[in-house]
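Tokens for chain A. Residues wanted.
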């Protein structure tokens, strides 16, 4: 049993340092947890550097014992853009980390709930750090494999802490894997025939025109996902910020555009699973750890297909299967031998059925929770 704790807001640089440092100590003994670079987390949490805060507010909290030990943390998040787009009054919690003690978890959730309730919100949802465009969901199945880039990993006891605090399932998010180096020939042949009739062609990203290519993705992203549960459009500044962060790890042949008569109708983004390299730097510090990370990055054989979208009017043209096939061929030629696709919403049956037909299988489940305020 953890001694009596006090939950206090992060107000000073020292408080923020504690907030950032806690997971590295908590998960030190977990062989699957991947330590992010501390500088990246600091940038993400910065209300000056992260364009998310152009339309959102957040309050960070730490749970501290009388002796000064941090035993938990949480962020309460008010995303105005989400509320406007979804026409609801949902607030979020994120960056949740906690020792296995229900009293500590309760104290953290109560602090976050009070802050959200003061702002007129009626539901607390999470975890999302900061939104569904970022790392989100609590791992509830698939604890025996490491997380991929920009995906969460947590101990099994987190689900009990959340559910005993009054949260119930809102939505499950499924992650799919495959170890095959090729798609079923029947699907590829059918997709190619349809694509020829529809005059669909593919091309890889031109990294020399990187930010112009990013501009091509923006309208496709908004059109392709706008009907999804929990979706909130990213601003141009947010997309540019994310693209700038990911540019060093982008492999041009793993980003593919589908075009028809000069019009871009779809895109897919797969990235090397940089978590493989980050795992070699348990402290998360830039120096000297970055040298190990850069060396290990040369031996990555895993990819994550993060995004694949097609304009609604072209969704039955075979463009999605063609783009998967492109990533398979190019990825295998580059030495990648395992791929993850997702996450997908549990009730996104058309996309899920397509992945299953292509030889993918569900291997992890992330869960979003809701609690009335």
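Reply:
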């Amino acid at each position: 049993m953890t001694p009596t704790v006090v939950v206090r807001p992060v107000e000073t640089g020292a408080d923020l340092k504690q907030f950032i440092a806690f997971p590295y100590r908590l998960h030190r003994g977990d062989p699957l947890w991947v330590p992010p670079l501390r500088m990246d987390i600091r940038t993400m949490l910065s209300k000056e550097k992260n364009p998310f805060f152009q339309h959102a507010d957040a309050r960070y909290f730490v749970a501290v014992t009388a002796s000064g030990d941090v035993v938990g943390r949480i962020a309460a998040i008010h995303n105005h853009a989400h509320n406007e787009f979804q026409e609801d009054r949902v607030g979020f919690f994120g960056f949740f980390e906690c020792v296995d003690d229900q009293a500590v978890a309760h104290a953290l959730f109560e602090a976050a709930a009070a802050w959200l309730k003061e702002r007129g919100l009626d539901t607390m949802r999470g975890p999302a750090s900061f939104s569904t465009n970022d790392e989100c969901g609590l791992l509830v199945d698939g604890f025996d494999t490491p997380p991929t880039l920009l995906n969460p990993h947590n101990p099994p006891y987190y689900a009990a802490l959340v559910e005993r605090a009054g949260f119930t399932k809102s939505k499950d998010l499924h992650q799919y894997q495959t170890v095959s180096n090729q798609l079923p020939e029947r699907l590829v042949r059918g997709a190619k025939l349809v694509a020829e009739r529809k005059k669909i062609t593919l091309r890889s990203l031109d990294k020399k025109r990187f930010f112009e290519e990013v501009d091509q993705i923006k309208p496709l992203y908004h059109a392709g996902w706008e009907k999804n549960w929990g979706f909130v459009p990213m601003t141009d500044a947010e997309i540019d910020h994310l693209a700038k962060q990911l540019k060093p790890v982008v492999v041009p042949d793993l980003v593919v555009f589908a075009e028809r008569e000069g019009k871009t109708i779809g895109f897919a983004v797969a990235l090397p699973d940089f978590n493989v390299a980050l795992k070699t730097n348990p402290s998360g510090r830039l120096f000297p750890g970055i040298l190990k990370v850069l060396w290990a990055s040369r031996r990555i054989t895993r990819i994550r297909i993060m995004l694949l979208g097609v304009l609604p009017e072209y969704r039955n043209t075979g463009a999605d299967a063609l783009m998967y096939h492109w990533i398979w061929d190019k990825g295998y030629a580059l030495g990648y031998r395992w791929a993850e696709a997702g996450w997908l919403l549990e009730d996104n049956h058309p996309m899920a059925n397509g992945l299953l037909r292509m030889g993918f299988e569900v291997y992890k489940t992330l869960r979003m929770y809701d609690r009335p305020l």
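The chain has twelve helices and 15 strands. The first helix runs from residue 13 to 26.
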